[in-house]
Amino acid sequence: IAQECQKYEVIGSDLVANAVNELLCYGAEPLFFLDTYTCGKLKVEIAAEVIKGISKACKKAKCALIGGETAEMPGMYFESDFDLTSFARGAVERWKLLPQKEDISDGDVAIGLLTSSLNSVGIKILRKFLSNENLTFKNLSSAVLDDNCSFEEIILSPQDIYVDTVLPLIKRGVVKAVIYVSNGGIIEHAKKTLPDAYKIILDGKKWTIPPVFDFIAEHVGFSKDAMLRDFNCGVDMILIVDKHISEDILNDIKCSGKMASSIGVIKPRDNNEPHVELINAFHNLKGKSKHAETQYTSDVACRKFVPKNEYIKREVAVFTSDKGTTLKALIEYSQNEQNLSTFRVVLVVGPITNETKQIISTTTGTSIE
Questions:
Q1: How far apart are alpha carbons 233 and 119 in whole angstroms?
Q2: Residue-level pLDDT at 312
Q3: Residue 297: helix, strand or coil by DSSP?
Q4: So what's the pLDDT on residue 147?
Q5: Cα–Cα distance for residue pair 63/12, rounded to 1 Å
């Protein structure tokens, strides 16, 4: 998209933002950053704009840009193509590592740091979907949204860097967990952070979904389920804090210049309950998707969206150990329609013990010779 619009500085900025914001999830203070710029043929003006974005973002994150590498690989890339990778190092005392799962308890508050833009993976999914629908970004870029910003301006706005806002709170010891919604939607990220005994209840009425997500749902064609699963929907980061000091922390965040709201609460979880529960989930999502009646799932490998009833699973072989407990979990996961798994186990390789045979027979209903 940046190539299509010839705006490259934002790529460098987002490269840094993703790295340093992820470090905050561990309670770490960003120390230094390195990048690699690989291309078919070096175009100095483009590379300079990318590095300008990296430099500005590192300064904002108080993170040293200590070096990088530029490589021309004409045999691997087309002349106009380039690729960026990054590495960031942070530091934290081992006993202060986040999340502090043992401290998370009933009644803790989830504070959402809000954004009006998509994260980088959301943009990738959007671009892939447009390609599948034979649309281009230019078909949408000039559209003006409710906040008087064009679709292009929103998509190519740099991601927020939260070091100045969140790191002081972490150092004060008032943050129990940090959830950065960088790769997909808020549901997937939240459930990875919580202890098994607890769930997070998010209330859709507690924050306003920005116009860009309404626009995507209505004009591009994502279902509302897909929007919540694959996009951040206006929530960039979630902090889990004690309920008794949540208002003070919320005020501190707002004083730092960031938008924030108390969007949920931690509650005990039964074994059969999900880790994340959304109430009033579609309250602020106004757009009516042209595929509203279709459930979409995303292929992990290529992020290609297809209707669930047309989804084809890959057939895979599994190497198993003597006990076969992982094999059992894999087969059960692939058979559960709620998981929308991308694979189906068709071959088992390894020491096939009587216990393994029993597992395969029980989970698949197939007799093993």
A1: 9
A2: 53
A3: strand
A4: 63
A5: 14
108 φ/ψ angles, rounded to the nearest 5 degrees: -55, 150
Structure tokens given for 33: 């950053």
Structure tokens at 204: 């859709």
- CA pair distance 347, 3, nearest whole angstrom: 43
Handedness of CA 303, 277, 146, 219 (dihedral sign): positive
Q: Report the number of secondary-structure helices (H) and strands (E) in the chain.
A: 13, 13
Reduced to 3 states (helix: H, G, I; strand: E, B; else coil), residue 278 is strand
* Residue 366 CB-half CA count within 13 A: 12
* Pairwise CA distance, residues 265 & 202, whole Å: 7
pLDDT at 44: 92
Distance CA 64, CA 31 (A): 6
3-state helix, strand, coil in the chain (%, to 5): 40, 25, 40
Per the CB < 8 A criterion, the answer to whether 4 and 153 are in contact is no
Residue 140 backbone phi and psi in degrees, to 5:
-115, -20
Phi, psi for 283 (deg, rounded to 5)? -55, -40
Of 180, 188, 206, which Cα lies nearest the Cα of 279?
206
- In whole angstroms, what is the distance from residue 206 CA to residue 239 CA? 15
Low-confidence ranges of the chain (pLDDT < 50): 287-311
